[in-house]
Amino acid sequence: MSGEQKAKAKMEQAKGKTKEAAGRALGNERMTAEGRAEKAKGDARQAKEKTKDVFKG
Question: What is the distance between the alpha carbons of residues 13 and 19, in angstroms, rounded to a whole number?
């Protein structure tokens, strides 16, 4: 399950980064903000999984 969550975090980070870049290119503030939020969500998920790994090992 942990590997699945890590993959999900990476996908959220990548999706957010892409959306943020597209928003900047188009001059769309809302899209840029949504991209940042998705990326942050992925970062938080990844941090949670790393913390779990530390306490497992």
Answer: 10
